[in-house]
TrEMBL record:
Residues 197-260 form a coiled coil. SUPFAM superfamilies: BAR/IMD domain-like. The keyword Coiled coil applies. The keyword Transmembrane does not apply. It comes from Microctonus aethiopoides. Residues 24-270 form the BAR domain. Keywords: Coiled coil. This is BAR domain-containing protein. GO terms for cellular component: cytoplasm.
Length: 314
């Protein structure tokens, strides 16, 4: 293996110079080149975008795939570029158990047949949920992950290069200042201060040119964040549309289940959320459950307690 000794020595010297420069800046004994306010604003916005995108992505993945073990498994499948396992959802597992229980109890009785109907509904809801998760992953999660793994990584890399160029530039500025301070004095190295100053100024011009070029490249990348956010906004709208369809399908499925259960029991199905329930008694009176407490205002009214069952004529 061939080694370029001169290059290794030069790189080592540059690295040492950067460490010295950074140390002096930390101690406050050396000046630091500051970027313009517009650039700093762009950099701050990029960091904020990266931070919040990471948080949103993490929370979205947790919502769509609550099981952390499954999330880790999916991550490895993505890394080895293999198709994710087609898992059943929790609702589908519940549905399978309900259907099996209904068959065991007997489809000929109300409870058995109702269990089977509800189980089939849970399976359908589970499939709707899996379809939504797939759609949400494609329209929202994947674009966010692609942004972080692509554009933001590139920006972070170029920002690191810019910081290196900035340290080199400031080190050159320090050498120029030192060389100027030596004018008119005898040099220990035997090289005249004028020659040392001329060399330091040439290095400074090169460092300034490289710094300016890197700053312009980084600035263009930072300005691209606006376009990325516009793309993320479109993805967000698509996610909301998918979520709206998902809940509409779930609502329609549950309404259908209520009608089917009512048909099995031969009457109207009453949910626990209805304000009151009434049923016909043998003597022709109606019976109703009180929704909330009520204090009678006069002798023609009744004082009632929540959940009290009372009879009345209609």
């Amino acid at each position: 293996m061939d080694f370029n000794v001169k290059k290794l020595v030069k790189d080592a010297g540059a690295a040492l110079s950067r460490v010295v420069q950074l140390t002096e800046e930390t101690l406050g004994t050396s000046e630091k080149t500051e970027l313009d306010a517009h650039f700093e604003h762009l950099a701050e916005r990029a960091n904020m975008t990266k931070t919040w995108t990471e948080k949103i992505l993490k929370n979205m993945e947790a919502v769509l795939t609550p099981n952390p073990g499954n999330r880790i498994e999916d991550f490895f499948y993505e890394k080895i570029d293999k198709k994710k396992p087609n898992r059943l959802s929790n609702l589908e597992y519940v549905g399978i158990d309900m259907i099996e229980a209904g068959n065991e109890f007997g489809p000929g009785i109300a409870y058995g047949s109702s269990l089977m109907k509800v189980g089939q509904c849970q399976q359908k809801l589970g499939q709707i949920e899996r379809d939504f998760i797939g759609t949400a992953a494609n329209c929202y999660i994947q674009p966010l992950r692609k942004f972080l793994d692509g554009e933001m990584k590139t920006i972070s890399k170029e920002m690191a290069i810019l910081e290196t160029k900035r340290l080199d530039l400031d080190a050159c500025k320090n050498r120029v200042r030192k060389a100027r301070s030596m004018l008119g004095q005898q040099s220990d190295s035997g090289v005249s201060p004028e020659v040392l100053l001329d060399q330091a100024e040439r290095e400074l011009r090169v460092a300034q040119s490289e710094f300016d070029r890197q700053a312009e490249i980084t600035k263009l990348l930072l300005e691209g964040i606006s376009s990325s956010q516009a793309g993320h906004l479109r993805c967000l709208h698509e996610f909301v549309e998918a979520q709206t369809r998902h809940y509409a399908q779930c609502h329609a499925t549950m309404q259908e289940l209520e009608r089917e259960l009512a048909g099995l029991t031969g009457g109207t199905y009453h949910s626990a959320n209805q304000e009151s329930s009434a049923e016909q008694t043998a003597n022709g009176l109606e019976r109703a459950r009180v929704v909330c407490d009520y204090d009678a205002k006069d002798s023609n009214e009744l004082t009632l307690m929540q959940d009290e069952v009372t009879k009345f004529e209609i």
